[in-house]
Write a structure and sequence with these properties.
heterodimer, A: about 450 residues, alpha+beta, Chloramphenicol Acetyltransferase, 7-stranded mixed beta sheet, 5-stranded mixed beta sheet, 15 strands, B: about 230 residues, mainly alpha, two-stranded antiparallel sheet, 2 strands, flat
Chain lengths: ~450, ~230
C-alpha cells in the first residue's frame, strides 16, 4: 500500500504532462464562472445542429464521434472539483447518442451523460450537439460539429472531405495552441473595468421548465442586400431590429413608472481572428449596442448607424484586450486563488447573478455564414444555432447562415412571445420574407 | 403555404397556429396537415430539480428532533413529570413549524405558510400561557398575533396582485398599516390601562391616510393626464 502511494507520488512528480493531449485542463478564464453559477435546474448550454439530406445512421455517427473526440481532447473531459478551482479531467469512451427532445438545452445531468459536458442528440435527419460552456464557445462548437459532420459524411458516403479552415483532420494529433487559454495569452497590458450601468430587463411571466424555441428562416441574399443598402453588416442589421423589438416591449410594458435603464443587446465577439488565435476552447468577449429610449424616437436608419458605430468601437482590439486583462486580473488575484472552492462558489455565483447578464436586455449571437467543401455540402441541408436560457435574460437570439438561408433561433423561458413577434414583424415590414417554425405551437 | 394574418410571416407546414401571436391558421386551399414533419419530437425532457433546500430542511428537521426529544426525556427521567422542558420543546417546535416546515415543500405557497406561521406563533404563545399561568393570552397575545398575521398576508397579497394598479396597491397597503396600528394601540391600551385611547397610533394612521389620499389624487390625475397637464402647465 505504502509502496503504491510512493509510486503514484513519484509518477506524479516525474511524468511530464503532454500539452498536446493533456490528462487534465484548468478551466479557461471565461469558463471559470459557469460551474459555480450553475443551479439544480440550470446550466449554461448552447446547441448547434446540422441537418443532413437523409435520416441519420446512428452507428456511423457513433464511429464518427469516436474519431472526432480524439481530435478535440477538450470535449473528452469531465468537470471535476478541485480544492481551489474546478478543472477538466480526461475521460475515456464517448457519450451515448441520445434521442432528441422537445425542450432543448434542459439542464445537463453529467452522471446520466457518462460524465461528458456535451451531449449528442438525433431526430430524423438532424444531429444536435448541446454543449456546456466550460468546454468551448460557439465558434469552437461550430468547428466540432463541422468536423463531426465531415467525419460522418466521409464514413457514410466514402468521400474524401478536404479538411480546411475549422474542419479539422482527425488523423492529425491535437496541437498545443488549440488547447491554450487564449485569454491568458492575449490579455492586454492594462485592465479596464466593464462599462457601468444596468440594462432594462423584460417584464414577463417565467416558465423555466420549458425552453420555447421560435425559428425564423430568412433568405441570406435578401437580408445581406438590405444591410448593404444601409452600409452595415447583417449582424448590425439584425441587432438593430432586435433593439427595436426590445424597445417596443419596454414601451408596451410600461407601468406607472418608466424604467430609466436603456435597452441593450449583447453581441458575442469571436476573438480568434482578431488575436490570431487557434484555440478550440472559450475565446469570446462581448460588445454591447444599445438605445436610450428616453432620448426620443429613433428612425430605423438612425438606429442602424448608432449600432454600427457602437459595434465598431466595441470590437476594437485594444479595448477587448483591456477587458480580457480585467477578467484575467480577477483570476490571477492571489487572495481569490487561495480561497477554497467551497467558499468561492457562492461568491462567484452571486457575482454572476449580479453582474453576468444584468447589463444587457437580451443577446444576439451570430456565427456568420457556414461554408463547407462541396463534397460535404451536397449532403447537408441546414445548420442551426441556439442559446440555452440565461439567468436574468429570458429571451435570447442566435443566428447562423448556410445554403443561402439565415436561421434565426429565439429561445425563451417565459410565456410571452412579444420579443420574437416584434422582431419578425419588423423584418416583414422591412420587406424580408420570414418562414416561422417552433417547438410549442 | 400559409401566412399569419397578424404577423405577415410564412408558417411552416407543422404549425397549426402562428407561434408569434397564437392565431390559428385557416387556409381553405391548404388546410393544416397534422402528419406534417415537426421540427422537434414530442418527448419532453423533465428538468430534475434536486431541491437542495428540501434536503437541507429534512436534515435540519432531524437535527431539531434530537434536542426536542432529549429535553423531554431528561425532564421525564429527572422527576417523572414534564415541567421546565415544555418551554424549550415548544420553542424548538415553533422554530421548526415557522421556518423549517415551509422549506420541506418543493414549491412553497408563501401566503399559505404565512397563515401556518401565524397559527404556529399563536399555538406557541398558548403553550407559554399555560406553562407560565399568565392571563394575557386571549385578550392580548392572540389578537396581536392574529392582527400581525392578517396584516402581513394582506400586504403580501396586494404586492403580488396582478389585477390591482400600482396606486390602488399603495392605497390598500397604507390603509392596512393604518388599521393595524390603530388596532395594536386599542388592544394594548385596553389590556394595560383599561380604557380606549389613541395617541401614537394616530400619528402613524393620519400619515398613512394622508399619503393614501395623495396617491389617490396623483393616480387619478395620471390617468387623466391630458387634463392634468392642461390645467397645471407652467
Amino acid at each position: 500500500m505504502l509502496l503504491n502511494i510512493i509510486f503514484v507520488c513519484v509518477t506524479m512528480l516525474t511524468v511530464k504532462q503532454s500539452s498536446e493531449n493533456p490528462t487534465w485542463l484548468k478551466l479557461d478564464n471565461a469558463a471559470k464562472i459557469y460551474p459555480p453559477a450553475q443551479t439544480e435546474g440550470w446550466n449554461a448550454l448552447f446547441r448547434l445542429s446540422v441537418t443532413f439530406d437523409e435520416p441519420v445512421d446512428r452507428g456511423v455517427l457513433s464511429a464518427a464521434l469516436a474519431r472526432v473526440l480524439k481530435r478535440f481532447p477538450n470535449f473528452a473531459m469531465r468537470l471535476r472539483r478541485g480544492l481551489f478551482w474546478y478543472y477538466l479531467d480526461r475521460l475515456s469512451g464517448q457519450p451515448e447518442i441520445q434521442d432528441d427532445v422537445k425542450n432543448p438545452c434542459a439542464r445537463m445531468n453529467f452522471k446520466e451523460n457518462g460524465g461528458f459536458a456535451f451531449r449528442v442528440r438525433v431526430f430524423g435527419c438532424r444531429v444536435a450537439v448541446e454543449i456546456f460552456h466550460v468546454i468551448t464557445d460557439g465558434a469552437g462548437g461550430l468547428s466540432f460539429i463541422k468536423t463531426l459532420a465531415a467525419e460522418y459524411v466521409s464514413i457514410k458516403y466514402g468521400v474524401t472531405v478536404p479538411r480546411e479552415g475549422d474542419i479539422l483532420d482527425c488523423d492529425e494529433a491535437p496541437s498545443k495552441d488549440e488547447l491554450e487559454d487564449g485569454f491568458l495569452k492575449h490579455a492586454g497590458p492594462r485592465a479596464v473595468p466593464p462599462p457601468p450601468g444596468l440594462a432594462y430587463h423584460l417584464r414577463s411571466t417565467p416558465d423555466r421548465d420549458f425552453l420555447r424555441v421560435t425559428t425564423g428562416i430568412v433568405d441570406s441574399a435578401e437580408i445581406s442586400e438590405k444591410a448593404k443598402a444601409l452600409g452595415v453588416t447583417v449582424t448590425e442589421y439584425l441587432a438593430t431590429v432586435l433593439l427595436f423589438a426590445a424597445a417596443d416591449w419596454k414601451r408596451a410594458r410600461r407601468g406607472f413608472f418608466q424604467s430609466r435603464r436603456p435597452v441593450i443587446v449583447s453581441i458575442p465577439v469571436n476573438l480568434r481572428k482578431l488575436f490570431g488565435c487557434r484555440t478550440l476552447r472559450n475565446f469570446a468577449n462581448y460588445a454591447t449596442v444599445g438605445l436610450d429610449t428616453r432620448l426620443g424616437e429613433y428612425s430605423f436608419e438612425e438606429a442602424v448607424k448608432v449600432v454600427h458605430h457602437q459595434l465598431r468601437l466595441g470590437t476594437d482590439k485594444h479595448v477587448l484586450a483591456a477587458r480580457i486583462a480585467s477578467n484575467v486580473g480577477i483570476e490571477k488575484n492571489i487572495l481569490l486563488r487561495m480561497v477554497p472552492r467551497v467558499i468561492k462558489k457562492p461568491i462567484m455565483s452571486l457575482a454572476y447573478r449580479m453582474e453576468g447578464d444584468m447589463k444587457n436586455t437580451t443577446s444576439l449571437s451570430n456565427l456568420g455564414q457556414v461554408t463547407l467543401p462541396p463534397e460535404m455540402g451536397a449532403h447537408i441541408a441546414r445548420f442551426d444555432f441556439l442559446l440555452g436560457s440565461l439567468v436574468r435574460n429570458p429571451v435570447n437570439a442566435a443566428a447562423v447562415g448556410y445554403g443561402g438561408k439565415v436561421v434565426i433561433n429565439f429561445s425563451r423561458v417565459i410565456e410571452e412571445s412579444f420579443l420574437e413577434r416584434a422582431f419578425f414583424r419588423r423584418l416583414v415590414k422591412l420587406g424580408v420574407h420570414v418562414l416561422i417554425e417552433s417547438n410549442y405551437s | 403555404m400559409s401566412y399569419c394574418v397578424n404577423c405577415g410571416v410564412e408558417l411552416a407546414a407543422s404549425e397549426k397556429r402562428c407561434p408569434l401571436c397564437g392565431v390559428e391558421v385557416i387556409n381553405p386551399s391548404s388546410p393544416f396537415d397534422p402528419t406534417a414533419a415537426r421540427p422537434y419530437p414530442d418527448r419532453h425532457e423533465a428538468i430534475r430539480h434536486r431541491a437542495i433546500r428540501v434536503v437541507a430542511a429534512r436534515v435540519l428537521s432531524l437535527l431539531m428532533a434530537i434536542p426536542f426529544i432529549l429535553v423531554l426525556l431528561l425532564d421525564l427521567i429527572e422527576d417523572g413529570s414534564m415541567s421546565w422542558s415544555l418551554i424549550p420543546a415548544a420553542s424548538i417546535a415553533f422554530a421548526f413549524l415557522a421556518f423549517v416546515f415551509p422549506c420541506l415543500f418543493k414549491k412553497p405557497i408563501l401566503w399559505m405558510f404565512m397563515i401556518f406561521s401565524t397559527l404556529a406563533a399563536a399555538a406557541y404563545l398558548f403553550v407559554l400561557h399555560i406553562i407560565l399561568k399568565g392571563g394575557w393570552y386571549y385578550l392580548f397575545a392572540l389578537p396581536l398575533t392574529a392582527m400581525t398575521g392578517a396584516a402581513t398576508i394582506g400586504i403580501y397579497l396586494m404586492i403580488r396582485s396582478k389585477k390591482a394598479s400600482l396606486p390602488l396597491k399603495l392605497i390598500i397597503i397604507l390603509l392596512i398599516i393604518m388599521v393595524f396600528v390603530l388596532l395594536v394601540q386599542l388592544v394594548t391600551e385596553l389590556n394595560f390601562r383599561g380604557e380606549i385611547r389613541f395617541d401614537w397610533s394616530l400619528y402613524v394612521a393620519v400619515s398613512c391616510g394622508m399619503l393614501s389620499l395623495v396617491v389617490l389624487i396623483v393616480g387619478r390625475l395620471y390617468r387623466k393626464s391630458e387634463r392634468f397637464r392642461k390645467k397645471l402647465f407652467f
